[in-house]
Design brief:
Length: 863
């Protein structure tokens, strides 16, 4: 294989095309004669013919209904003179005879839409194709209105073909007359069609290319074709049987129903679909049948939708579901299938709602089928199933189903949550970047491809999915640097549980730390940002919050800024603190201040006077005990906020304060609403005092926080990170207990527990900040770009400490600790291959990388 790859790369680099392989007029008429190849000696004769050709056409037919993996049942090969139909069932064990011609670089193989054929030839016969010309790729390049073979046959040869025959049972022998005809047509005209397309490609080349830019369309078509040959067949491995089928079935079904009608329905339905898909997957393997044969998708949906109670009902439901769909094709299949009929009790058991542990059920079912007195054939193929029966499931059992209305509300809220925060489009585009030697450098998103193409640093070599080849020599290759992670395609699923219907990004290294990392250590986002479903996200988030507390204790750096005071009063306070003033009375935790001010602004007039007085005291403590006005209250709202948070608050204000405008407190009506601008400026100057009282501040910990940032995940080695702003969304989880009473409505709390840092935007003013453990002095200057409401200041101090004490290795080890925390909390089962807790993040940055410090400066100049 290594050799073949090298040869394909050679072809990709220097397409070898003396494409005069069909000279003059090609007879597009199909004769009566063809050669049926079914013995080894006939196969060898065919080899002798083919080895003398410079080009031949190939197509394959496969059978997939009564086989788990599917198999190639027929190979059609056409030379200029003759059509051969190779019985690959009879010759299965001898097909290796043809390996040399298929791998011979000097002989061109013409296919139409070779993607599947190339993989099937590998899967069944270890035949690798070198030097492919794919007429479908040529169609792409020529921007043909259609690229189906039927279209080409019609257009170039005036031949119509009945594509329905492609679904025939290609195992049958002898093949019917129509099937022989169909099979021959699929290969017979390909040489002629290829010739026509090549002529057009040559024309296109001379018409479009300007003299100094010689784009050779023929070579490009050949190159794109040969890229197809680089695919390698691999069996799909699922952590839990039937998982991907279950998730696509559920999402298709639920989408088809429009809105999610009932929260109960969804969970129970999902659960049943998952069980049935798992059972179907295992049974299909055991009996070597296709999934479709064992149990159709529509039957699974019907069973899960209204679980039947009796064996007879189960059969009826399946039959009915199969009748309703795709009559022409499926009416030939037994419904229910023989597999269902012989395992009806298992299906029945699975549909029961009292299964508490599916981990026990599947091994039991397998044992029953394959065990010592099992009912099903035990073969080498399914023996492995029994041995490696490692079925871990964590399904919601119906007994644990929520019943109370409060919990239903929770579910509904979760749905909203999912809708609002999950990624709306797949995160990973899995576009590829190849080095100029054809080696895969990384997977990335479309934007990155465009970045290179725009700068003419690369050329497009494939478009579905898009792939580019760099025109410069990149620094290193991921494999050589032990960075295999970057050359794995990534699935759009929760890396923990495999959920594929919704997911959102999760940052393994909390942003409050990461944003303070040196730039080049930040560039490994694709490794440390993963996709998680909402449920797993919540688990990960709370584990991270817990670990932050541990870090805070370990480093002696509190999570929250403990107290702030109005800096105009600072001198008064520090002067008097020497003497009698109780430290407790000075300053106030920023979140407590905000909460109190917000409550007063919103509900002041309607509050019991005792409560109002308490809250006033809190705000007054910030202002050094002096009387306060409505303007002071508004100003207090903004204390500790980053400019970004302030802008958001301003935007929201119109809505939030509508009902309280003009009557916040009985005695301050006149002041309200006229000091917005000045208060923003004032609020940026505050003094922060240190103390360990952060209980109130932690109230904001309860909120979940989700962010959207479209650029992060597709990032990788030779990054073109364009540094797009992150948009932060905070979400007060309305389900969590409401510790702030009236003041803590959803959305009130803008400061979030993690990343209140605004990386752009002007700095207005400084904030005074006191952390005794660090500088020992009463106050320290602090850039007000950093929000004081979240963990920003903590994160900054931790990172500075790490860098000072241990340098960059300290930061790397810190990252490793967070990955460990993540892995321990979630036990993720779907992390991309190559993902590693110890990921070093050590990379060299090439000439064109934006992480290259020189380019960073350049980009700044440009923008
Ligand atoms: P073709 O590329 O048209 O020669 O198709 C090759 C094989 O792909 C067929 O023998 C089928 O096994 C499979 N196939 C292609 N399209 C379909 C389809 N629409 N439905 C079922 N099987 C298909
Ligand atoms: Mn075909
Ligand atoms: Zn999950």
């Amino acid at each position: 294989m290594r050799l073949v790859t090298a040869e394909i790369f050679e072809l990709v680099e220097n397409p070898r095309l003396e494409f005069s392989f069909i000279d003059g007029i090609v007879d597009s008429e199909i004769s009566e004669e063809y050669t049926w190849v079914e013995t080894v000696s006939q196969l060898k004769e065919l080899l002798d013919v083919l080895i003398k050709e410079r080009v031949f056409a190939v197509d394959t037919e496969q059978h997939s209904l009564r086989s788990f993996l599917g198999f190639t049942a027929l190979i059609q090969i056409s030379t200029r003179k003759e059509d051969y139909l190779v019985d690959t069932i009879a010759l299965h064990d001898s097909m290796g005879v043809l390996r040399p011609v298929f791998a011979e670089p000097s002989i061109c193989k013409v296919f139409h839409g070779a993607d599947n054929d190339v993989l099937w030839l590998q899967r069944d016969f270890h035949i690798y194709v070198v030097n492919l010309f794919d007429t479908a790729k040529a169609c792409d390049l020529l921007s043909k209105p259609q690229k189906s073979l039927a279209y080409l046959l019609e257009t170039y040869c005036g031949v119509t073909t009945n594509k329905l025959l492609q679904r025939e049972d290609w195992r049958q022998r002898p093949l019917s007359k129509e099937m022989v005809q169909y099979a021959r047509i699929d290969a017979h005209y390909l040489l002629y069609i290829a010739n026509c397309l090549i002529t057009e490609l040559k024309q296109q080349g001379t018409e479009i290319s300007c003299p100094d830019d010689k784009f050779d369309f023929v070579l490009e078509a050949s190159r794109r074709s040969n890229m197809t040959c680089l695919q390698l067949y691999a069996k799909e491995v699922e952590a839990f049987p039937g998982e991907s089928a279950a998730s696509s079935l559920t999402s298709r079904h639920l989408n088809g129903q429009g809105a999610v009608s009932s929260v109960y329905f969804k969970t129970e339905f999902q659960d049943l679909v998952m069980r049935l898909c798992a059972w179907r997957d295992i049974m299909a393997r055991v009996h070597d049948e296709s999934l479709r044969y064992v149990l159709s998708d529509q039957a699974i949906v019907a069973l899960a939708d209204r679980p039947p109670m009796t064996l007879a009902e189960i059969c009826r439901t399946i039959t009915q579901a199969d009748l309703n769909v795709d009559l022409s094709f499926n009416s030939l299949l037994p419904s229910p299938s023989s597999v269902v009929c012989s395992h009806l009790d298992d299906v029945h058991t699975l549909l029961q709602d009292n299964i508490s542990n599916l981990n026990d059920i599947f091994p039991m079912i397998l044992q029953k089928c394959l065990g010592s007195s099992g009912s099903c054939p035990l073969s080498i193929l399914n023996y492995a199933l029994l041995v490696n029966c490692n079925l871990k499931v964590s399904l919601v059992s119906k007994q644990n189903m929520v019943k109370s209305s409060k919990q239903v509300a929770r579910k509904t809220s979760r749905e909203l949550f999912v809708q609002k925060f999950s990624c709306k489009t797949p995160v990973y585009h899995n576009c590829k970047i190849f080095a100029n030697d054809g080696r895969l450098l990384c997977y990335c998103d479309r934007r990155k491809l465009e970045w290179y193409l725009h700068r003419e640093l690369a050329k497009l070599v494939d478009d579905n999915p898009p792939a580019i080849m760099l025109l410069f020599e990149p620094k290193g290759r991921p494999e050589d640097e032990d960075n295999d992670f970057y050359i794995q395609s990534k699935k759009n699923i929760c890396v923990c549980c495999g959920e594929g219907n919704h997911y959102l990004r999760y940052r393994i290294i909390p942003s409050c730390y990461r944003i303070h990392f040196p730039e080049h250590l930040k560039s490994h986002r694709s490794h440390d940002i993963v996709l998680l479903c909402v449920d797993c996200h919540e688990v990960a988030h709370s584990a991270a919050e817990k670990y932050k507390k541990q870090i805070a204790a370990e480093f002696g750096i509190p999570l929250f800024v403990s107290k702030v005071v109005d800096s105009k009063e600072v001198q008064v306070i520090s002067g008097s603190s020497e003497s009698a003033t109780n430290d407790e009375e000075v300053g106030v935790p920023p979140l407590q201040l905000r909460t109190a001010a917000m409550a007063l602004l919103r509900h002041g007039p309607r509050m019991p006077s005792k409560r109002r007085e308490e809250l006033m005291q809190i705000v007054m403590r910030y202002y050094g005990g002096r009387e306060i006005t409505g303007a002071d209250l508004e100003a207090a709202l903004l204390v500790g906020m980053s400019p970004h948070e302030r802008r958001r608050l301003k935007k929201k204000k119109g809505i939030s304060f509508k009902h309280s405008a003009g009557s916040i407190l009985p005695n301050m009506q006149n002041n309200v609403g006229c000091t917005e601008t000045s208060s923003i400026v004032d609020a940026s100057e505050v003094g922060i005092l240190n103390s360990s009282d952060s209980t109130k501040a932690e109230a904001c910990n309860g909120q979940q926080e989700f962010r959207k940032a479209d650029d992060d995940v597709g990032d990788s080695t030779i990054g073109a990170d364009s540094g797009v702003d992150e948009v932060n969304y905070t979400f007060k989880d309305s389900l969590k207990s409401d510790t702030h009473g009236a003041s803590n409505r959803k959305g009130d709390c803008i400061g979030n527990s993690d990343d209140n840092y605004e990386s752009r935007g002007p700095s207005n003013g400084t904030v005074e900040l006191n952390h005794k453990k660090y500088d020992g002095t009463a106050q320290s200057k602090h850039n007000s770009k950093l929000s004081l409401l979240g963990h920003g200041p903590h994160g900054k101090q931790v990172v500075n400490h790490l860098l000072k004490e241990y340098g960059e290795d300290g930061v790397r080890q810190f990252c490793q600790r967070w990955r460990q925390v993540f892995v321990e909390a979630l036990q993720p089962r779907f992390l991309p291959a190559g993902w590693d807790v110890m990921h070093s993040g050590r990379r060299d940055f090439g000439e064109f990388s934006v992480y290259n410090p020189a380019n960073k400066a350049l980009d700044l100049v440009k923008s």
